[in-house]
Amino acid sequence: MSDKASVSSARDAEDRERHPLAMETLVSLCAARGFIYPSSEIYGGLAGFWDYGPLGVELKNNLKAFWWRRMVRERDDVVGIDSAIISHPRTWEASGHVEGFSDPMVDCRTCKRRFRADQIEGERCPEAPKKRAITDCDLTESREFNLMLRTELGASVDESTTAYLRPETCQAIFSGFKRVRESARQKVPFGIAQIGKAFRNEITPRNFTFRSREFEQAEMEFFCHPSESEKWFAHWREERLQFHRDLGFDESLLRTRPHAPDELAHYARAAEDIEFLFPFGWQEIEGIHDRGDWDLTRHTAYSGKELAVTNEHTKERFTPVVIETSVGIDRTALALLIAAYRRERLENGEERTVLHFHPALAPIKAAILPLSKKLAEPARAIQKNLRKHFNVFYDEAGNIGRRYRRQDEVGTPFCVTVDFDSGDDGCVTVRERDTMEQKRIPIEGLERYLRDLLEEGL
Ligand code: ATP
């Protein structure tokens, strides 16, 4: 049963250089194994929309649960909410999105396609990529194009109101600030967090899920006194970097990039991106922003409701400033897949594909594999017990080597093999994904044994 690998498990910088990962390889693995595939695939897909399959949804749920645990459950000074996707349309006037959430666009008069004016440098014309750069096409002047997706509310055309699918999750945190602060009995400084869908009519969705039109954000808005904004900015920058390290990202895959003053969004006083080294280059996965008092001041002005607070001790009345941490769940899930992917040569000359996820993030925690179909009963009993605690998978089809390979390919950290000795000695063999080492473990202590390893380091 032994199938040792001759290489170490960490996908370090040197290894990535020797075996660069082609995005096509990952995209096809994701579709074939049920992580991520095009939405409405049977109709040819819809650009910028993706569906997460049985393994993808587990990966994403584990990522979101870890974020929630770090950002909400483990802290006294952050509380969570889950707000509606559609807010009162005035929200988006107050936030500046109706007026300013746009990208500069150019249209091609020949092929009728639209491109982002700031992203055409070095791009080829999709109609004639061999012959022409986009800059040599017959382009219109650049115009601003609003990225918000609209919808209509109301039963009749005359009475309908234009509403927007939120382009970011944070605005409901600002409009609900007073309600949440009072009901949760929180005092500034404190934060409000939420995870949810956001929608942007991206003109050039690309790089798999990296730039989608529907995606998920995990955002936390931390409200503090203006004199403490630098302190909290530094605090959250460190916390968030550590989060990405804890996900298992090697230092060589992470960097931070402060925004230059001319890059700052309309609301921001300072901003720093956390970037990941994707196969298509360094790209943002998270933004840390000092939003000043822009949001609360604007919502006060547009709603007529006072959102300032009073310091109990000094009686000072002030509008809190906001430090925001905003991470894309889909981009981080993509980064997890990229960082985890590895082709390895085994000692017996065979190759295997492995996803080296941190066990806590792996979609399946343990696969229960009876050596023979005759051992189904005791194996099913183990599955029944373990599935109460975490996601397990039962597989009795094919030879054991092939079953190991299937689990390696989807990143399952443990395979539990039930053999003909198990009935006598009350033990099973636990094979570890990365080292491929095997240990005999008593069935009685199996759940505790796996649980300790699953939580290690987090
Ligand atoms: P970009 O410059 O790449 O368009 P952004 O600066 O507009 O991103 P933010 O508005 O700061 O992004 O959003 C916070 C996070 O939400 C980003 O770091 C990213 O992870 C995620 N995100 C933003 N737009 C998209 C998108 N179109 N698809 C997937 N994730 C996105």
Descriptive labels:
single chain, 458 residues, alpha+beta, seven-stranded mixed sheet, five-stranded mixed sheet, 14 helices, 23 strands, 27% strand, disordered N terminus, binds adenosine-5'-triphosphate
Can you offer a commentary on this structure?
With 458 residues, the chain is α+β, with helices and mostly antiparallel strands. It is 29% helix and 27% strand. It is built from 14 helices and 23 strands. It has helices at 13-18, 23-33, 54-73, 90-94, 97-100, 171-175, 177-183, 229-246, 294-303, 329-340, 376-386, 400-409, 422-425, 446-455, and strands at 36-38, 50-52, 78-80, 102-107, 114-116, 143-146, 149-153, 161-165, 190-199, 214-224, 254-258, 270-278, 281-292, 309-310, 317-318, 321-328, 341-345, 351-355, 366-370, 392-394, 414-418, 427-432, 438-442. The strands form seven sheets. A seven-stranded mixed beta sheet has the order 3-9-10-16-13-12-11. A five-stranded mixed beta sheet has the order 20-19-21-22-23, with helices on both faces. A three-stranded antiparallel beta sheet has the order 5-4-6. Strand 7 (149-153) and strand 8 form a beta hairpin. It is globular. Mean pLDDT is 92; it is low at 1-10. The protein binds adenosine-5'-triphosphate. The site of adenosine-5'-triphosphate (ATP) has 16 residues, from strand 10, strand 13, strand 16 and helix 10.
